[in-house]
Each structure stands twice: as C-alpha cells, then as structure tokens.
Amino acid sequence: MKLKDSQKLILASKSPRRKDLLEQLGIAIKICPSNVDEGKLSIYSADSAKKFALNLSQLKAETTARQYPNDWVLGADTIVVINDKILGKPKSEADAFNMLKQLNNNEHSVYTAFCLCHQNSKIQVSRVLETRVCFKNCTDEELKWYIRSKEPFGKAGAYAIQEKGAFMVKSIIGSYSNVVGLPVCEVIEELKKLNLIQF
Question: Active-site residue among 5, 20, 37, 77?
Fold first, then answer.
C-alpha cells in the first residue's frame, strides 16, 4: 500500500504512535505538528466529548493545511473519558496516579477523531470512533510501578495500551488502533474513497 505518485500526506501531529501506524502500512508521511493549544479539559457529556475530539482534529488539520494548501493533511485527537470527565495528559506523578485510580477496575471510553483535508480543493472528511476499554483491578503498587516507568506522561488518560500499559487492560470493545491513537481501518477507507492510495 502506498500513496499515489502525485499525492503527499502531511501528519499534523508529533505523535510517534500515529506516525508508526501509518508507516508500517507503507504510507510515507511528512510530520508537521499543528501546535494547536488544546486548552483546558474539564467536564463534558459523552456527546460533547466526541464533538470536542472532532473539533480539535479539524482545527489541527486546518491549521497545518494553511501551510501546505496543495497537500492532503491528516489531523487527529485522542481523548479518554470516564464518568463524563475527559482525562488529558498527566502533569505530574500525582496527577497520573489520580487518573489511573479512576480507570482502575472500571470501564472507560477512548475517542479518536481524525480529519483529512485539502485546502485548495476545499475538501474535508472527518470521523470519530469510540472504543470501550476495561481495566483490571490493579494494586496501588502496580500503578506506582507503572508511573515510575514514565510511560504515562504525554499519554491521554495516563497510559499506553501498546506498551507497558497493556498489563492493566482486561478487555476492549472496538478498534485497538483507535486506542493507540488512530483508527487505521477507517483512515485507510477514507483514503481509498478519496483515491489517494494504491495497493
């Protein structure tokens, strides 16, 4: 799988996970983070959480697309929601512990929204997906060990399902790659519809 010869895809994200998910399929990308200020996360209903992720993915894509008006740009945003509360990226060990305690022995939603846009063609496609994730009942010692690994930092909800954080995940319902940071199946389907890739 690759992009058609005349096409370029700009990833408006500095997430190494999104980069890896695309490159492992053979899709060459250029990284150009949007540097959008995600602002303060607080209480949202489930519906609002989806809209929040969708709006943020669109803003990221549109911001970067202004720099690359002749190329396709992909923006994405992943959020973790539990009890109508969005969990952002932890700012400290105490913050990470508080987040993980909320997720512990509980089920939560991970929403990833993505937006593909081409500024000069005035084409924009956006989608948001939900995956349900259930954590096992971890001891405080397990959570503190995980936090000491430094892996929770820079991750929404303070964990990475594709790394050490997998030990906490009892089950998932929905797309695994959506939790990693990009719903690969759906992104590829949209790229196909836009006639941007070939096999």
Answer: 77
Q: String of b and e for 98-132 (b: at least 16 CB within 10 Å)?
A: ebbebbbeeebbbbbbbbbbbbeeeeebbbbbbbe
Active site residue 77: yes
Q: Strands 9-11, 72-82: parallel, antiparallel or unpaired by DSSP?
A: parallel
pLDDT tens-place string over residues 101-158: 999 999 999 999 999 999 999 999 999 999 999 999 999 999 999 999 999 999 999 9
pTM of the model: 0.92
Residue-range domains of the chain with CATH: 2-198 (3.90.950.10)
CA-wise closest residue to 7 among 23, 25, 24, 30: 30
Between CA 72 and CA 108 the distance in angstroms is 32
Query: Cα–chain-centroid distance for residue 101?
Result: 21
Alpha helices in 66-172, H assignment, sequence order: 93-103, 140-148
| Model confidence pLDDT, tens digit, residues 149-189 | 999 999 999 999 999 999 999 999 999 999 999 999 999 99
